[in-house]
C-alpha cells in the first residue's frame, strides 16, 4: 500500500514536471526578494536569455523603464495580499527588443514565494497599438476632411443620411433640411442630363467617380466643388451606400473663369469690330454682330431697335434667341411681342438720362415657346445707342446669368461702336443713291398701283428734294380732247413761291405747247443768256420769275404730251449731265407709267362692262331658273291638290253611304235580336233541328258580338271621314286666297297625312311627336301654301330621323345607345303681332356649310332621285315673300335641327 502511494506520488511529480517544462506560457516561481527561483524553458525560448541570466539578476532589471514603477507596485500588492493579481509590462529580450507579457500572479506567504504565469501578448499589443494609431490617424483625417471638405453619405437611392458641417455651411442648408433629400436640392441646372447619367452609371458599377460640379446654394448663388464619389461595397461587391467628398474650388473656378472671361471678351471685342467694319445692309451687319455676341455671352435673348427720332416708333433691326445652347435669328419683333412693350418703356426711361440698365430682374411671359418655360425670371440689361448726344436706338439683352462689371463695360463699348456704325450706314445709304431710290420707287408704284396721280406727285416731290430746286412740276398738253388744254397737273415748290397749278392759256403760252410737241430737251442755266432770237422764251421766264430751267419731255404712246420742268427763281443753276441723266430716267419711267395707266383704264372699263353684262346675265338666268322651279313645284302641288281633292271626293260618297246605313243596320239588328229573345222566351223548347243549328253557329256569341261589330264599323267610317276632311283641308283648292285660319288645325292635318311615316314605317321609326301649343289668334295667311311649308319641313325632319336610325343600326358600335326619335312642335304668340312655329328634331344635324346653302334652289343632301332641292327654297319664298315673315334654321352636326317660322298675324 505504501509502495503504491509512493508510486502515485512519483507519477504525479513527473506529470507536474512535464507540464512545467512543456507549457507555452512563461511559468515561474519568484521570491519576495526580487529574484526568480524557478522558470520553465519558455522563458529562454521567448526572451532569448539563458536560465542563468534570468535567475542571476533581479527580475526588475528585465522590466522596461516605463513599466518598472507599476511592476514594483504590483509586487508590493502581492506581499500584502493573498489574491491573484493581473497586470502587463514589457520584458527585455536578449536582442534588445521588448516583449509584452500579461501576468497572472498568486502569492504564497508561508513560503514567501510568488507563483506566476506570463503570456506573450506582444503581437496583440502591437495590433492594438497599430489600431489605436489608425484610429488616431482616422480622427485626424476626419478632422482635416471636415475642416476642408464637404462630406455627404447617401443610401443606394441617393438619399442623404449624413452631411458634415462644411456641407451645411457652403450649401446654406441646415442638416435637417439636407437629411432625407437627394442631391437635386443643390442642382444648379448647369450640367446636362447625360453628365449625371454617366456619374450614376460609374458609381453604380462600384467605381469611383471624379469630376467638377457646379451646385446652387439655398440663396440661389452658385459654387463649384471638386468631387470624389466612392461607393461602399457589401460582401457581394455591390454598393450599399455612397460617400461624396467635395472640395470647394469656387475661388479657383472664378479665377479661371475670370481669365477665360477676359480672353473671351477680348475675342468678342475683336470680332465685333471686324463685323462692324464690313460692308452690307444695316440689318445684316447688326444681325452678324448679335450672332457674335450670343456666341460669346450666355444670353437668352438679345435685340437691337433703332429710330431716327424719339417720337417715331421703334424699328426692329436684329435679334437672336438662344435655347439649349442653340441660337437662331429672329425675323422680327413679332417673334417675341412682349419685348416691344419693354423696349418702349426702356426708351422712355433712357430718353431722360441716356444711362444703361444692368441686371434688372424681369418676368417674361411667353406663349410662343421662345423660352424654356411659359413664365421665366430673367436678368435684363439695356444699352443706349447714342450719336452726337441723340438716342438713335437701344440694345437689350435677357440672360439668366448676371453680367459682371467687365462684361458690362465691354457691352457699353460695343453699344457705342454699334451706334457709330448705324450712323455711318445711314449716312452711306442716304448718300448711296437717292436717285436710284427715286427710280425704284416710281417703278414700284407703276407695278403696284398704276395710280398716275400718285406716281406724278411722288416724282415732282422727290426730284425737287433731290436736285434742291425751287419748283418742279409736271406739264401736260392734251390736243385730242374736245377742248385742247395745257395744264400743270402736279407741283412741288418752295413755300415762299406762289402755286402754278391749273390750266394755262394756249394763246399766251404757245411756246410751252410747241416744246411738248417737239419732245426736245430745253436747258436754261441763266436768265441772262442771249434770248434775242427767242423773245417768247424771254417773256416766259419773266412771267414766272424763272432764273434757270430744265424741261424734259415725257415720250409716251398715249396720244398726250407731257414734261417734267425744274426751275429756279433765285440765281443761276448749271444743270449737270448727272441732273439731266436723272431726269431722263425719270421721264422714261413716267412714260411707261402713263402708257400703263392708259391701258389699265381701258382694260378696267372693258372689264367693268363685261362684269356688268355677266352679272346681268347671271341674275336673269337665276331668276329664270327660280321662276321655272317655282312653276314646276306649284304645278306639282296644284296637281297633287287636285288629285287629293278628287280622291277625297270619290272616297267621301261611298263612305257617307256606308256610314249613313250603319245606323239603320244597328236598329234592325237590335229588333231582330229582341224578336229572337222573345221566341226563346215563348218557345223555350226548340226543335232538334233549330237547337242543332243554334249550337253550330254559336248563337250566343253572334248575338253578343254583332252589336260590337257594327259599332267598330261605325268608328272606322268616322275615321275615314276625318282623313278625307283632312285631305280636303290640306289641298285647300277652294282657299287659294288668304283667309283667317287656325294654325294648330293645319299642323294636325299635316301630321295626320304623314301619320303612316312618323308612327311606324317598318324600320321601327315610331317617332314621338311632342306638341307644345300656346294660345294663338287666327292668322291671316294663304292656307294651302302654309300647309305646303309645314309638309316640307316635317317631311325633312322625318327623313333626317329615319337616316339617323338606319346609321345607328348599321354602326359597328353595338353598345351605342339607341336613338329615341322625337319631333318637337311649339307655337307661340310674340309681342310684335307675330306668331312663331318651332319644329325641331333630334337627328344627326347638319354642318355649317350645308346650313349656308340650305335654302338655295336645287341644293339637296339626299341621294339622286330622292329629292329635288326645291322644297325649302319654295318654303323660304312662301314665308318671306308671300307672308312677310322669316324662316331660319339652326343646326349642329350631331345635335339635331330646328326650323323657326315667324309670320305676322295680319298680312298687309
UniProtKB/TrEMBL annotation:
Entry keyword annotation includes Transferase: yes
Entries under PROSITE patterns matching the protein: HIS_KIN, PAC, PAS, PHYTOCHROME_2
EC number: 2.7.13.3
UniProt domain Histidine kinase: residue ranges: 646-907
Pfam families recorded: GAF (PF01590), HATPase_c (PF02518), PAS_3 (PF08447), PAS_9 (PF13426)
Alphabetic keyword roster: Coiled coil, Kinase, Phosphoprotein, Transferase, Two-component regulatory system
Domain of life assignment: Bacteria
Domain Phytochrome chromophore attachment site: start-end pairs: 451-589
Record GO terms (molecular function): phosphorelay sensor kinase activity
Every PAS domain range: 12-69, 137-181
UniProt domain PAC: residue ranges: 209-261
CDD domains the UniProt entry points to: HisKA, PAS
Residue ranges the record marks as coiled coil: 607-637, 791-818
UniProt xrefs under InterPro entries: GAF, GAF-like_dom_sf, HATPase_C_sf, HATPase_dom, His_kinase_dom, HisK_dim/P_dom, HisK_dim/P_sf, PAC
Reaction(s) this enzyme catalyzes, per UniProt: ATP + protein L-histidine = ADP + protein N-phospho-L-histidine
Gene3D superfamilies for this protein: 1.10.287.130, 3.30.450.40, Histidine kinase-like ATPase, C-terminal domain, PAS domain
Family label: In the N-terminal section; belongs to the phytochrome family.
The protein's name in its UniProt record: histidine kinase
Organism in which the protein naturally occurs: Anabaenopsis circularis NIES-21
Amino acid at each position: 500500500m505504501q509502495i503504491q502511494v509512493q508510486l502515485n506520488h512519483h507519477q504525479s511529480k513527473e506529470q507536474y514536471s512535464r507540464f512545467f517544462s512543456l507549457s507555452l506560457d512563461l511559468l515561474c516561481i519568484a521570491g519576495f526578494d526580487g529574484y526568480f527561483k524557478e522558470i520553465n524553458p519558455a522563458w529562454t525560448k521567448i526572451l532569448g536569455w539563458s536560465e542563468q541570466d534570468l535567475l542571476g539578476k533581479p527580475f526588475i532589471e528585465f522590466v522596461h523603464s516605463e513599466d518598472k514603477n507599476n511592476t514594483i507596485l504590483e509586487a508590493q500588492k502581492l506581499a500584502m495580499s493573498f489574491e491573484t493579481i493581473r497586470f502587463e509590462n514589457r520584458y527585455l529580450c536578449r536582442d534588445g527588443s521588448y516583449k509584452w507579457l500579461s501576468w497572472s500572479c498568486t502569492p504564497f506567504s508561508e513560503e514567501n514565494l510568488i507563483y506566476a504565469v506570463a503570456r506573450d501578448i506582444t503581437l496583440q499589443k502591437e495590433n492594438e497599438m497599430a489600431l489605436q494609431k489608425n484610429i488616431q490617424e482616422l480622427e485626424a483625417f476626419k478632422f482635416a476632411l471636415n475642416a476642408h471638405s464637404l462630406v455627404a453619405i447617401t443610401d443606394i437611392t441617393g438619399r442623404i443620411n449624413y452631411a458634415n458641417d462644411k456641407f451645411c455651411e457652403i450649401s446654406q442648408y441646415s442638416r435637417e433640411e439636407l437629411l432625407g433629400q437627394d442631391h437635386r436640392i443643390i442642382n444648379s441646372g448647369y450640367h446636362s442630363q447625360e453628365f449625371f447619367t454617366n456619374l450614376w452609371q460609374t458609381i453604380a458599377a462600384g467605381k469611383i467617380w471624379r469630376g467638377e460640379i457646379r451646385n446652387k446654394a439655398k440663396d440661389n448663388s452658385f459654387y463649384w466643388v471638386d468631387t470624389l464619389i466612392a461607393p461602399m461595397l457589401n460582401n457581394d461587391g455591390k454598393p450599399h451606400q455612397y460617400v461624396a467628398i467635395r472640395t470647394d474650388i469656387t475661388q479657383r473656378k472664378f479665377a479661371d473663369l475670370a481669365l477665360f472671361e477676359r480672353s473671351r471678351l477680348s475675342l468678342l471685342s475683336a470680332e465685333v469690330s471686324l463685323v462692324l467694319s464690313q460692308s452690307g445692309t444695316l440689318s445684316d451687319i447688326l444681325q452678324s454682330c448679335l450672332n457674335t455676341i450670343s456666341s460669346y455671352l450666355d444670353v437668352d435673348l438679345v435685340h437691337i431697335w433703332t429710330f431716327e427720332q424719339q417720337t417715331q416708333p421703334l424699328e426692329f433691326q436684329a435679334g437672336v434667341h438662344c435655347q439649349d445652347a442653340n441660337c437662331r435669328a429672329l425675323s422680327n419683333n413679332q417673334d417675341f411681342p412682349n419685348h416691344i412693350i419693354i423696349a418702349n418703356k426702356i426708351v422712355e426711361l433712357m430718353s431722360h438720362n441716356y444711362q444703361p440698365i444692368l441686371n434688372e430682374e424681369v418676368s417674361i411671359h411667353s406663349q410662343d415657346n421662345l423660352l424654356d418655360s411659359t413664365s421665366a425670371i430673367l436678368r435684363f440689361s439695356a444699352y443706349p445707342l447714342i450719336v452726337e448726344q441723340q438716342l438713335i436706338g437701344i440694345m437689350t439683352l435677357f440672360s439668366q446669368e448676371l453680367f459682371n462689371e467687365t462684361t458690362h463695360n465691354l457691352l457699353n463699348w460695343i453699344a457705342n461702336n454699334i451706334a457709330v456704325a448705324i450712323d455711318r450706314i445711314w449716312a452711306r445709304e442716304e448718300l448711296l443713291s437717292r436717285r436710284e431710290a427715286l427710280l425704284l420707287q416710281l417703278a414700284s408704284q407703276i407695278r403696284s398701283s398704276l395710280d398716275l396721280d400718285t406716281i406724278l406727285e411722288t416724282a415732282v416731290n422727290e426730284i425737287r428734294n433731290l436736285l434742291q430746286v425751287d419748283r418742279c412740276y409736271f406739264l401736260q398738253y392734251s390736243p385730242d380732247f374736245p377742248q385742247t388744254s395745257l395744264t400743270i397737273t402736279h407741283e412741288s415748290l418752295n413755300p415762299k413761291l406762289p402755286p402754278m397749278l391749273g390750266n394755262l392759256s394756249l394763246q399766251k403760252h404757245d411756246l410751252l405747247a410747241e416744246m411738248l410737241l417737239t419732245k426736245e430737251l430745253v436747258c436754261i442755266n441763266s436768265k441772262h443768256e442771249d434770248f434775242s432770237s427767242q423773245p417768247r422764251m424771254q417773256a416766259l421766264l419773266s412771267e414766272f420769275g424763272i432764273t434757270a430751267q430744265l424741261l424734259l419731255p415725257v415720250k409716251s404712246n398715249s396720244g398726250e404730251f407731257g414734261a417734267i420742268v425744274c426751275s429756279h427763281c433765285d440765281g443761276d443753276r448749271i444743270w449737270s449731265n448727272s441732273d439731266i441723266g436723272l431726269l431722263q430716267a425719270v421721264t422714261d419711267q413716267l412714260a411707261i407709267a402713263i402708257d400703263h395707266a392708259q391701258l389699265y383704264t381701258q382694260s378696267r372699263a372693258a372689264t367693268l362692262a363685261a362684269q356688268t353684262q355677266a352679272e346681268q346675265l347671271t341674275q336673269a338666268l337665276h331668276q329664270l331658273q327660280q321662276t321655272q322651279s317655282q312653276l314646276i313645284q306649284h304645278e306639282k302641288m296644284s296637281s297633287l291638290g287636285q288629285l287629293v281633292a278628287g280622291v277625297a271626293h270619290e272616297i267621301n260618297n261611298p263612305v257617307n253611304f256606308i256610314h249613313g246605313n250603319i245606323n239603320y243596320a244597328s236598329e234592325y239588328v237590335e229588333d231582330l235580336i229582341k224578336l229572337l229573345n222573345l221566341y226563346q222566351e215563348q218557345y223555350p223548347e226548340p226543335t232538334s233541328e233549330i237547337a242543332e243549328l243554334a249550337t253550330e253557329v254559336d248563337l250566343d256569341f253572334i248575338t253578343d258580338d254583332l252589336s260590337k261589330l257594327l259599332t267598330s264599323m261605325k268608328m272606322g267610317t268616322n275615321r275615314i271621314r276625318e282623313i278625307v276632311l283632312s285631305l280636303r283641308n290640306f289641298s285647300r283648292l277652294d282657299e287659294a286666297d288668304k283667309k283667317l285660319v287656325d294654325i294648330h288645325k293645319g299642323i294636325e292635318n299635316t301630321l295626320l297625312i304623314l301619320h303612316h311615316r312618323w308612327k311606324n314605317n317598318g324600320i321601327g321609326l315610331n317617332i314621338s311627336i311632342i306638341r307644345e301649343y300656346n294660345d294663338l289668334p287666327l292668322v291671316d295667311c294663304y292656307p294651302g301654301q302654309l300647309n305646303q311649308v309645314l309638309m316640307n319641313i316635317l317631311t325633312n325632319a322625318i327623313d333626317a330621323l329615319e337616316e339617323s336610325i338606319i346609321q345607328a343600326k348599321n354602326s359597328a358600335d353595338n353598345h351605342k345607345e339607341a336613338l329615341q326619335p322625337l319631333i318637337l312642335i311649339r307655337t307661340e304668340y310674340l309681342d310684335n303681332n307675330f306668331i312663331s312655329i318651332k319644329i325641331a328634331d333630334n337627328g344627326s344635324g347638319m354642318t355649317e356649310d350645308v346650313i349656308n346653302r340650305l335654302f338655295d334652289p336645287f341644293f339637296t343632301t339626299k341621294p339622286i332621285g330622292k329629292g329635288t332641292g326645291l322644297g325649302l327654297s319654295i318654303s323660304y319664298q312662301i314665308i318671306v315673300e308671300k307672308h312677310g315673315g322669316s324662316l331660319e334654321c339652326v343646326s349642329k352636326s350631331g345635335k339635331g335641327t330646328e326650323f323657326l317660322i315667324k309670320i305676322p298675324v295680319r298680312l298687309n
